[in-house]
Amino acid sequence: MNNWNYFELGQIASIYNGSTPSTNNEDYWNGDIIWITPKDLSDQNQKYIIKGERTITQKALSNTKLLPNGTVLLSSRAPIGLLSIASTDLVTNQGFKNIVVNADILHNEFLYYYLKLKKNELNNLGSGTTFKELSKSTLEKYKIKFPDLPTQKSIAKVLSDLDAKIELNNKINRELEAMAKTLYDYWFVQFDFPNPSTSSGQAGKPYKSSGGTMVYNTELKREIPEGWEVKTISEWIKKDKNGDWGKETEEGNYQLKVTCIRGADLNGLNGNGELKPPTRFILVNNSNKLLENHDLIVEISGGSPTQSTGRLAFITEETLLRFQNPLICSNFCKALTLKEEKYLYNFVYQWNRLYDNGVLFGWEGKTSGIKNLLFESFVTKHKEVFPKYEIAEKFYDFVKPIQSQKQKNLLQNQQLSELRDWLLPMFMNGQVTVTEAEEKLNMAAEPSVEYKKG
Fold first, then answer.
1. What distance separates the 2 farthest-apart alpha carbons in the chain?
2. Got the DSSP string for 204-256?
3. Do the beta carbons of residue 371 and residue 303 sit within 8 Å?
């Protein structure tokens, strides 16, 4: 690192605050200019950002700075350290310090990775009583070390290639999930599953559209396919298992080492965000609480004003392969086992539809300010359509390889992320060269699988 430069960030980049136009002026909103908040970065969790939840108009630009494509966006409060790179001209709210680099000296992708490594340092530089904030002047004085521009670009390329592989897998997973969700809606919401009729010309055609018999159900107050039942959710469930938190370290009878899935980990388990469950130690006698293939995990306590409790994840053989230890859910969650394994994916997509439609908000209580899902009341009182076994089985057989491939992609992403996170500090500390890193990357590479959307 003897030939690395050492500068204050303000000497080699321009730093701009963001702002929020008056929300009382309708002329400032719903225009064609992208407006980014820290929540957009948290939700999207991608290196590049091209859109946010809201937009502003040209009139609003008098109160803020239009940032050029390639600007490094750094959240400076609540929380400090979220990062992204603008992939188009845009603006941000006041929760950012936006960095426009001198491209003759500093590469924006290199800076992105450098600041990502220094997140804790940046957080410690924040000040404030209500919440910590990183000021513009403090960031301008923040000193960074960096090599010559070609080396910066080479380092950024190695790390970017890893991120690109991860994002490709994420894209494949989104498309696979969309396929499964579309089929669920088609079969179990529109009731256009393959008609099992043996009548001439009807077999295999979309049931409802081809004239399949529909029967009015007085409990649901709508028509359902003939022969389908209406059941409470509890009638699908064979048993449930409470979670466990155990101990942080091995002590006494707490000898069984496990990975503990919390409510915060459920999205990551499903492939939507980071997954960093803690390692815990539980009583050996509590091994009956360990998660098994086809188990489901429901968040019982948590949520927020805009997010209900009741997030759901499920376990497959491929899920278990992503972890070195046996899995258990925390005591803020509950594990479920269904009576019939072949109803797993029908249950999952039906539960998620209820969750997405806000149904579970109506089944929450509060204890000491924490929202709790009234699980027993919900599953014993809420009723849903219960399809015939052969239709659920066909759906299971369709979705199982999709979910298997998704979990394999997530396992590969986990390995790629670990490699990237190992390389990042090694690069920034000058402990590994680009050539050495490329050799490591080639050793870790697997034969690529071409994916074609069906």
1. 82
2. TSBTTTTT--EEEETTTTEEEETT-EEEEGGGGEEEEEE----BSS-BTTEEE
3. yes
Query: The dihedral of CA 119, 124, 128, 129: what is its sign?
Result: positive
**pTM score, whole prediction:** 0.88
80 phi and psi angles, rounded to 5 deg: -85, 135
Helices H, strands E: what count in the chain? Answer: 12, 24
Alpha helices (H) in 287-372, listed in sequence order? 317-320, 344-356
Q: What is the DSSP letter of 188?
A: I
Residues with Cβ within 8 Å of residue 164, at least 6 apart in sequence = none
CATH of 5-146, one of 3.90.220.20, 3.30.1280.10, 3.40.50.300, 3.90.226.10: 3.90.220.20
C-alpha atoms less than 13 angstroms from C-alpha of 424 in its C-beta half-sphere = 22
Residues 39-97 have pLDDT tens digits of: 998 877 789 999 999 999 999 998 788 999 999 999 999 899 999 999 999 999 999 99
